[in-house]
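not sure who needs this but someone in the group chat was asking about UDP-3-O-acylglucosamine N-acyltransferase from Arcicella aurantiaca so here u go. i didnt clean anything up, its just raw.
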Amino acid sequence: MEFTVEQIAQMLNGEVKGDKSLKVSQLAKIEEGTTGCISFLANPKYEQYLYTTTSSAVIVDNTFEPKKDYTTTLILVKNAYAAFTTLLQEYQKILAQNKKGIEQPSFISSSATIGTDVYIGAFAYVGDNCKVGNKTKIYPNVSIAEASVIGENCTIYSGVTIYHNTIIGDNCVIHANAVIGSDGFGFAPQADGTFATIPQLGNVVLENNVSIGANTTVDRATMGSTILRDGVKIDNLVQIAHNVEIGKNTVIAALTGISGSTKVGSNCMIGGQVGMAGHITVADRTIVTAQSGVTKTVKQSGRIMAGSPAQDSHNNLKSQVLYKNLPKIEQRLKEVEEQIKQK
């Protein structure tokens, strides 16, 4: 696919500074770009590459002032990073438009309802009474169990397993080998020391514009639903336990685990390797830094939490300083004790 710089500028509501007629057909990092590529500059650390890149065009902020001569054509936009993200999204849509039809061999139940312009890859399975919305793409080796509902314009990548009665909204993306709707971890201890399995009779609901990373698991509820609200973005290798609720536009980084029945608010940012205890509530706009352990309810919205157990990040930094100085403090105590003994 080939576009002129002018066409791309129009798509991004940008202004061209240079040759509008240049043609680009590839996306590239600014330090790796060659003729025919388009790149972007958002981080000042990479400004040096603007003066050496051979990319045909570079997207920059409209406030950017170059310090040296350059040979590339610039596309001036309000926010270079956001504009390049838009460009990537449009490029992905164009690629996806080529995927339509049902490949064989695949299995689609006679009771399933399939929308228009749908792609279903080879070896995919769509069970009884499932519904798949218009323009949704289901890649090879996906399994969708009975009575599940997939909305419109979704993308489900290879190896994903969706258990029965799962409900997925519009414009959702589920990456390879994610598991949606597996049993929650529910076992009841018995008098003889064994554990009886508690049936997990609920389901999982993903609302609209949800993204699930590769190898992430979202467990079905014991009763009711495990719910990820509109706009939630989940990274790879995340565990969401039974009956958890994640609020709108919350983002969760890799290797995080959220225990059962915990409720996370809207617009939260959860760092990598965070652990959350069960049956707690985390307020809206909470930020939890990487490797923190949240063991208690966070009531005040907008707090930054850090450490394990997690506390206010400012207090956590103070604690780290004290911890670092413990050997010195211990030595001073020993010296004071020795002085007291000598008196």
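also The longest helix spans residues 80-96. if thats useful
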